[in-house]
Design goal:
- It is built from 5 helices and 5 strands.
- By secondary structure, it is of the alpha+beta class.
- The chain has a single domain, classed as Arc Repressor Mutant, subunit A.
- Helix 1 runs antiparallel to helix 4 and helix 2 crosses helix 3.
- The longest helix is centred in the last third of the chain and has 15 residues.
Length: about 120
């Protein structure tokens, strides 16, 4: 089943442009064909783990990545990251300002359940 995308105004223009202008951040986006942990991304991209965490923060703040939770049987759950957009649009508004819109991927039931689990984990 094909997913639909929802276009909504998102993070501010500066954070999106800063994230997309960063070579390491772009490498992380390219590596995310499926949800991965920070360690897995660090290994796949040959970016040091500390730098990977900084770039993940940059991309999540810009709403280009989303965090999820990988539930493990041993009880040591881990955070995963996935690409949260299909398209970024930058347009000139009527007031001659640059606006950014991000076409986000609509989530399926499994992803919505994972989001709920993440929220519960953050509150406990």
């Amino acid at each position: 089943m094909a997913r639909e995308s929802a276009v909504r105004e998102s993070a501010d223009l500066r954070s999106v442009l800063d994230a997309l202008d960063d070579a390491d951040a772009r490498a992380i986006i390219r590596a995310l064909e499926e949800p991965l942990t920070a360690s897995e991304l660090s290994e796949r991209t040959d970016i040091p783990l500390s730098t990977t965490y900084r770039k993940l923060d940059l991309l999540t703040e810009a709403e280009l990545l989303e965090e999820g939770t990988e539930i493990r049987s041993d009880g040591h759950h881990t955070t995963t990251y996935a690409v949260a957009f299909e398209e970024v649009r930058i347009a000139l508004s009527e007031s001659r300002e640059l606006d950014v819109e991000i076409a986000h991927v609509d989530k399926g039931p499994e992803e919505r359940l994972a989001d709920i689990w993440t929220a519960v984990r953050e509150e406990t």
